[in-house]
Amino acid sequence: MNTTQISIACTFLFLCVTLAHAQAGYGATSDSGYGSALLALSSPATELPLPPTPAPAPEPIPEYVNLTDLLSVAGPFSTFLHYLESTKLIETLQTQANDTEEGITLFVPKDTAFSNLKKPSLSNLTSDQLKQLCLFHALPHYYSLSDFKNLSGSGPVNTLAGGAYTLNFTDDSGTVHIGSGWTNTLVSSSVHAKDPVAIYQVNKVLLPEAIFGTDIPPPAPAPAPVAVPDVAPVADGPDADGGKGKGKGVGSDTAARASTPSSSHRVTGWRTVVMVAVCGGLVVVL
Ligand SMILES: *[C@@H]1O[C@H](CO)[C@@H](O)[C@H](O)[C@H]1NC(C)=O
Ligand SMILES: *[C@@H]1O[C@H](CO)[C@@H](O)[C@H](O)[C@H]1NC(C)=O
Ligand SMILES: *[C@@H]1O[C@H](CO)[C@@H](O)[C@H](O)[C@H]1NC(C)=O
Ligand SMILES: *[C@@H]1O[C@H](CO)[C@@H](O)[C@H](O)[C@H]1NC(C)=O
Ligand SMILES: *[C@@H]1O[C@H](CO)[C@@H](O)[C@H](O)[C@H]1NC(C)=O
C-alpha cells in the first residue's frame, strides 16, 4: 500500500465505525459500551462522547385516594359515611389511608345492612361506642383479597378500634368470611383494592363483643324472608369483581416493557459488530 491507499483506508474505516456507532443509537445503554470498546481498538485517537446514562425510573407514587369521594360514589354507603363524618373519624381513616407504608383495609356495610339491623340496635350507643363500632370496620394495614389466606385461621386480627376489638377471618377458596362473634358475614365485593387502600363491601354491620357482650343469641334455625337481601347475588361476589388480578396485570405489563428494549439493544449490538467486521475486511482488501 502507498500513502494514498493507506489514508483512503483509514478514512473509510473511520466512516464505517462512525456509521456503525450511530446505528447503535443513543438508547442502547447496555451494548454501547461494547461498541465504544471496538471503536477504541480500531482508532484509539478518536474520542466520541458516551451516550448519557438514563436516570433510573423513580418509584411510582401511589395515587392519593380520597375516602369521602370514593364512599360517596360507591355503595350506597351513605349511612356508614354519615357516621364517619359525624364522628370526624373520616379524618382518622384518611390519615391511615395516606400512610403508604401500612395503608388501610376498610369493610363497608351497605345502607341496607344498617336498615336491616333491628337487634341489637345502634340507637342506644354512646358516641364513644359508635366511634369504636366504626373503627372496628378498619384494619391498620392494606390486605389484598389473596392476603386473607394468610389471616385465615391465624386467630383474632386487631382492628383500628384496638384492644379487644378483633375480627376473625376465614378464607373459603377465595371468599373471605368475617366473624365478630355477633356477626358472620363475607366480603361481597371489592370496591377498591390497590395498595395502600383496600375497601370491601360487606352485607352486615360488624358488631363487636366488646360493646354488645358475649351473650349472643343463637342464629335463627330457619332463614327468615328478611334474610334474603343478605344473600349476595352472584354478580356481587368477589369472583365477579376482578380486583384480585389487578396486581398481577401491572406486574406482567412492566415485565413486557422491560424486555422489549433490551432485546432491541442486543440486535443493534450485533449489527455494529457485523458492520465493523465488514469494514475491516474491506480495508484489508484495499
Ligand atoms: C375529598 O373529597 C371530598 C368530597 O368530594 C372533598 O370535599 C374534599 O375536599 C376532598 N379532600 C381532599 C383532601 O381532596
Ligand atoms: C391525605 O393526603 C392528601 C394528599 O396528599 C392531603 O390533601 C390530605 O390533607 C391528607 N389527609 C389527611 C387526613 O392526612
Ligand atoms: C335503648 O334504650 C331504651 C331506653 O333507654 C330501652 O328501652 C331500649 O330497650 C334500649 N334498646 C336496646 C336495643 O338496648
Ligand atoms: C403469607 O404466607 C406465606 C407463607 O406462609 C409467606 O411467604 C407470605 O409472606 C405471607 N404473606 C403475607 C402478606 O403475610
Ligand atoms: C376467633 O378465633 C379464636 C380462635 O382462633 C376464637 O377463640 C375466638 O372466639 C374467635 N372470636 C370470634 C369473635 O369469633
TrEMBL record:
Keyword Transferase: no
GO cellular component entries: plasma membrane; side of membrane
Biased composition (Low complexity): 227-237
Keywords: Cell membrane, Glycoprotein, GPI-anchor, Lipoprotein, Membrane, Signal
UniProt topology in membrane: Lipid-anchor; GPI-anchor
Subcellular location: Cell membrane
Location of the FAS1 domain: 64-206
Keyword Glycoprotein in annotation: yes
GO BP of this protein: plant-type secondary cell wall biogenesis
UniProt signal peptide: 1-22
Ranges where the record places region Disordered: 223-264
Biological function: May be a cell surface adhesion protein.
Protein family per UniProt: Belongs to the fasciclin-like AGP family.
Protein name: FAS1 domain-containing protein
Organism in which the protein naturally occurs: Ambrosia artemisiifolia (Common ragweed)
